[in-house]
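Tutorial handout. Part one gives the primary structure; part two gives the three-dimensional structure as C-alpha cells.
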Amino acid sequence: MRRIFLIAALGLALAFCALPQEASSTESKGATQTSEPSMGWEWANFVILAAVLGYLINKSVPPLFRRQSEEIQAALAEAQKIKHEAAAYAAGVEMRLANLQREIEELRATARAEMSAEGERIRRETEHHLQRIQEQSTQEVALMTRGAKDELRKYAAGLALDLAQERVRSRMNAEIEENLVRSFLSDLSSRADSRTAAN
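Part two.
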C-alpha cells in the first residue's frame, strides 16, 4: 500500500514539474506563439504519466489485493475455527454443568454409604472390645472371688483352730492330759503287738 502511494506521489510530482517548464519555455519563445503545441505536450505528458501509473498500479495492486484477500480469508478461517472450538468448549462446559448436580448427588450418596459402613465397622469393633473387656473383667472377678474364698477359708480354718485350741485349753487339766497320754500310749502298744503277732 505504501508503494502505491509513493508511485502516485511521484507521478503527480512529475506532472506538476512538467507544467511549469512548458510554461517557461513558451514564454521564452515569445508571446506570439500559440498555446496549442504546449497543450499537445501537456496531453502527451499526461497520457505517458497515466500509462506509466496505470502500468505500475496494474503491476503492483493485484498482488497486493490478492495477498490482502488471502490474509483476510486466512483470518476468517482462523476466526471460524476459533468460533467452532469455543462453541465445542461451551457445549462441553454446559454438559459438565448439567451433570454437575448429578455428580454431586452421587458423591454425597457415596460419602453417606462410606460413613455408614465406617460407623458400622466402628460399632462392631467397639462391641468386640467391650465383649473382650467384659470377659476379662468376669475372669478377673472370678479369680479375685476364688482368691477371696480361699483366703476366707484359710482365715476361717485358722479361727476354728484357734477356737478349738482355746476350748481344749479351757477344758484341759492335768488329769485329762495324763489320761489322754495313757490312752495314746496303750493304743500304740496294742498296735505294735498286733503287728508282731501278724509277723
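Part three, for discussion. Confidence is low (pLDDT under 50) at residues 20-34. Helices lie at 2-29, 36-171, 174-198.
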